[in-house]
């Protein structure tokens, strides 16, 4: 039986060199985030940008909801993959980082596809309850993950995708002795989805771990 490779930094660089290339504005966002100190961890990994790009392309996705935007790397990655008439609604509660994201969206000439809403995501999800999306990407405050997921299921039709970031939580979810509240919350959330008969799902070890759910 085959085993998964350990992805070293050298091997990851090799993969990146032979894979999709980042848009210059995506790289600008990464460079900007690298100046922010520890908070840059809120950014998705470039490998996840590539994955989101391909999943949107092959699934013919046009309408996307993002819960948690930060400075806009994942949102821009999604928007660049969408057709010209595609739409992304991006939810975040931080006005300062939203202003940064908007500048990058405009510079990349993607602002016509992206609408940002700045207030607590659960309030925005209530406002959007009559909308339908082809895909929802969840990457916001981890303690509300289960609620975001349940609300998302109401906004997705059959065969729609819900993708959730940070589900491996730096690998700590596998350590049953780790009782940190965030680790426990993510571990319980992962179990909830694994036992949810409304979806079929897989965890992909990209970045900090992504769960991809197809609604049944």
Describe the secondary structure blueprint for this structure.
Blueprint: H1 9-18, H2 24-33, H3 46-58, E1 63-67, H4 73-81, E2 87-92, H5 95-107, E3 114-118, H6 121-127, E4 133-138, H7 145-153, E5 156-165, H8 181-194, E6 199-204, E7 210-215
Parallel strand pairs: 1-2, 1-4, 2-3, 4-5
Antiparallel strand pairs: 5-7, 6-7
How much helix is in the residues? Answer: 25-40%
CATH class: Alpha Beta
CATH topology: Rossmann fold
Strand order of the main beta sheet, please?
3-2-1-4-5-7-6
Helix/strand class: alpha/beta
- Classified in CATH, the superfamily is Vaccinia Virus protein VP39
Q: Could you describe the largest sheet, including whether it forms a barrel?
A: 7 strands, mixed
Order of helices and strands: HHHEHEHEHEHEHEE
In the predicted model, the low-confidence regions spanning at least 5 consecutive residues are none
Number of helical elements: 8
The overall strand count is 7
For the record, the count of structural domains works out to: 1
Describe the structure.
With 216 residues, the protein is an alpha/beta fold. The chain contains eight helices and seven strands. It has one domain: Vaccinia Virus protein VP39 (Rossmann fold, 3-Layer(aba) Sandwich), CATH 3.40.50.150. It has a seven-stranded mixed beta sheet, with helices on both faces. The longest helix is centred in the last third of the chain and has 14 residues. The two termini are 30 Å apart. The mean pLDDT is 95.
């Amino acid at each position: 039986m085959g085993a998964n490779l350990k992805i070293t930094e050298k091997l990851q660089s090799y993969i990146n060199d032979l894979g999709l290339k980042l848009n210059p504005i995506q790289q600008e966002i990464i460079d900007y985030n690298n100046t922010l100190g520890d908070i840059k961890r809120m950014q998705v990994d470039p490998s996840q940008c590539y994955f989101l790009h391909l999943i949107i392309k092959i699934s013919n996705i046009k309408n996307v909801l993002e819960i948690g935007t930060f400075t806009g790397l994942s949102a821009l990655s999604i928007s660049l993959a969408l057709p010209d008439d595609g739409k992304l609604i991006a939810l975040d509660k931080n006005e300062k980082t939203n202003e940064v994201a908007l500048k990058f969206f405009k510079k990349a000439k993607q602002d016509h596809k992206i609408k940002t809403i700045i207030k607590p995501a659960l309030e925005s999800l209530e406002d959007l309850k009559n909308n339908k999306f082809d895909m929802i990407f969840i990457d916001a405050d981890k303690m509300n993950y289960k609620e975001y997921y349940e609300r998302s299921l109401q906004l997705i039709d059959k065969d729609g995708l819900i993708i959730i970031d940070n589900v491996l939580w730096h690998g700590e979810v596998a350590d049953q002795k780790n009782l940190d509240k965030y680790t426990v919350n993510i571990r319980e959330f992962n179990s909830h989805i694994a036992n949810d008969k409304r979806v079929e799902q897989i965890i992909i070890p990209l970045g900090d771990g992504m769960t991809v759910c197809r609604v049944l």
